[in-house]
Amino acid sequence: MRRGSLDKVFIQVAIIAAIIILLTIWIR
After folding, report:
1. Diameter of the chain by CA atoms?
2. What element of type H or E holds 12?
3. Distant-in-sequence, close-in-space partners of 2: CB < 8 Å, separation ≥ 6
4. So where does this one cross the membrane (predicted)?
5. What percent of the chain has pLDDT over 90?
6. Given pLDDT bands bounded at 50, 70 and 90, which one contains residue 1?
């Protein structure tokens, strides 16, 4: 297992989650 790839995936997931949360707040 490469830790670099795992960190990359984690960062992408965190960014997507943040965007979804911001969109839900923006819609309200």
Report:
1. 41
2. helix 3-27
3. none
4. 9-27
5. 71
6. low
